[in-house]
Design brief:
Elements lengths: L3 E6 L3 H12 L4 E7 L5 H8 L3 E5 L7 H11 L4 E6 L4 H10 L3 E4 L3 H13 L7 H13 L11 H11 L4 H8 L3 H15 L4 H10 L4
Parallel strand pairs: 1-2, 1-3, 3-4, 4-5
Length: about 210
């Protein structure tokens, strides 16, 4: 089994080294490089070819959200987990719309980092509890769209589950269907929304209040 290749972007040196050390304890994870800024992000991504990027938001010169946008122009497959102290809706939605795969508060790194990585690799979009509450609250209190994409009730439920960061496995369990059936539904949702990934689907669902 090939190791998961990880790059870390964090300007706080003690924290960056701590996260790197934590990851190195886990079998099957290979820490490629750690960086204290994202000013050369494009060259670094091309050189390192990571499977997973841990990305801080508040960094000197250019922030992590802008960096995610640049990464997505080069690579739409790499998983990007935001590590941040920010849990306000502005940063959350900007990160999701930029293409982040998950959003973990730094205070939860020691207890939730490995679970979050596993969830992303399983097709989910992990979020710290307070972040999930922000997303859910936004959907509950936002105006309801008239369903211009002709999503079926089940497809809307699935899109809602995706927006909550639920993995394919848990969605299958929630609706008592197989993972293959979940994938079929998700593929149809992508086609109707004219998107190509879970992050794009979630960003569109949140922006247009489809769920």
């Amino acid at each position: 089994m090939m190791s998961l290749r990880v790059s870390i972007y964090e300007d706080n040196t003690p924290l960056r080294e701590s996260v790197a050390s934590l990851l190195r304890l886990k079998e099957g994870i290979h820490v490629l490089e750690t960086y204290d800024n994202v000013l050369c992000i494009e060259e670094q991504i091309k050189k390192d070819k990571p499977d997973l990027i841990l990305m801080d938001i508040d960094m000197p010169g250019m922030n992590g959200i802008e960096a995610v946008k640049k990464i997505r122009l080069l690579n739409d497959r790499v998983s990007i987990l935001m590590l941040t102290v920010f849990d306000d809706d502005h940063h959350v939605f900007d990160a999701i719309c930029a293409g982040a795969s998950g959003y973990l508060l730094k205070k939860h790194i020691s207890t939730r980092l490995f679970d979050s990585i596993d969830e992303m690799l399983a097709g989910g979009a992990p979020m710290s509890p307070s972040i999930a509450r922000i997303v859910i609250s936004s959907m509950q209190h936002g105006s309801r769209n008239l369903n211009p994409y002709s999503l079926t009730p089940r497809e809307r439920q699935m899109l809602g589950s995706l927006s909550n960061g639920t993995s394919y496995k848990l969605i299958a369990s929630e609706f008592s269907i197989s993972i293959d059936t979940v994938r079929t539904h998700i593929k149809k949702i992508y086609e109707k929304l004219h998107v190509h990934s879970q992050t794009e689907a979630v960003a569109k669902a949140l922006k247009e209040k489809l769920v």
